[in-house]
Amino acid sequence: GVQPPPIEQQKQAPLCIKIDVEPTNRQNAGYSLMFNVEKVATGLRYGVEIKDRKTMLKVHHRCFGGTEAVDWLAMHSLKAFSEKENADMAQEPNERLRILARSAGLLLAQRLLETEVFRQINKKSKGSQNIFEDPQALFRFREDEKAGPVLNTRHVWNCRARPPVVVAADLVHKAMLLHLSVDSVPPNEAWPEWMAFLAVAEELQMVDISLLFRRAEVAFFLNLHNALMLHTHMHRGTMAGEALRGMRSRLLKLHQYRVGGQFYYMETMQQRLLKSKPGARGGGGAVEPRLYFALSLGCKSSPDVRVYSVDNLDAELNVATAALCARDVQVNYDAHGAKTVVLPKVFKWFARDFGDDKLSVLRFIDKALQHPAATNAEATEKAQQLALEVRAIYVSNAKKDGVRVKYIDFDWRKRNYGRPP
After folding, report:
1. What pTM did the predictor assign?
2. What is the per-residue pLDDT for 311?
3. Residue 150 and residue 49: Cα distance in Å, rounded?
4. Number of Cβ within a 10 Å radius of residue 416
C-alpha cells in the first residue's frame, strides 16, 4: 500500500509569492522578495476590520473591504521594500517606493484571492478596472464561511502538496480509521484524528492531477470518492441503519471536494472513472466493470471501502470484485433440484457492462471468484465451492439461455463500518 510521509513534513515547504523588483540604474541591482502566504494572510486578518456590512438590501456577514485589504498589504510591502533597500524608516518613503508598494499590494491581494485565502462575495461595480480598487467590493476569509457544500475549504492549504495519489490514499485511510471509532456521532474539533483528517482533505486544494496517467487517475478517484462518501456521512451525522434510499441520487451531489482548481462531487468522480478501462489511453472505450465493486455509497449492500494503489490496482480490483461476489452471490435449489442464481443488483443495473446476457454474467463471476479475497480458510473454501457451482450452471447452459436468475434487493441502510455489515 501507499505509505505517505507525515503531513507535518509538508508544512516545511510553505507556499510563497515572489515579487521581482527591476534595477533602477547601473548602481542599484534588481532583487526579489518572497512573501509567505500563511504569514501574510494571518497578518491581514488583524489588519482589516471584519464585520457585518450592508449593501443595498442585503447583509453580508463577517466580511471586509477590498480597498482596506490593499492598503494593509501595501503598507506591509512598503516595510519589506524599505528594509531590503536599507531605507531610513524614520523618513517619509520616496515616490518610487510608494508606487512599488501599492503595486505589490494589489498583486498580493490578487494572489491571495487566487489561492482562496478569501473570496469576493458581491458583484463588481460597473466601471471598476480592478476589483480591489472598487470601494464597494467585499470579501470574506475562508475561515469565516459557514459550513457549505465544499467540505475541504474551511481553511486554506498554504503549503506544497504531496503527490495526488498519496494524498487521496492517506485521506481514505484516515476516513476508514475514523469510521471505526465513530459510533453514529459526528466528530468534532476536540478529536485529533478528526483534525488530522481535515488537514489532509484541505491538502487536496493544492494537488495537481493534470499529469496523472489513467491507472493513477483511477486509483486517485477511487480513494477520493470513498473518502468523500465517508466524510459526507460523518459531516451530516448519518446514523448507522438509517435508510438512504430516498436520497440516493441526492447523496451523489450532496457535498464536494476542491481538488486543485476544480470541484468534484461523487457523481462527477463516477463519471470520470467509468469513462474507460484503467489501462486505456485517452479515455473512451468500454467501462471497466470491476469499478462497480470498488465504489461505495456507505450502504449495507455497498462494496467494502479499501485503499487502492497505482502499482497494485489490477490485483486490488480483483480482490474487491471477488469479495462482493463471494458475499452476495448465491446458488439456491428448490424442492425439485432446480437451481437459481441469486445476484446483487449491480448485475442488473449495469447489465450491458457485463455482457448483457446471463451467461456472460456467470462467466464474469466465475473468473472473479478465482482471485483470493477471503481472510480465512473457511471463507476461501466457501468461495471456491460457489465458483464451482456457478461454472457448472453456465457450462450446462452454454448453448441455451436457460439460467434462472434472481436479483436481491439492494439494502440502502447506512452501514456501520465499525462492525460487519
Report:
1. 0.71
2. 96
3. 26
4. 18
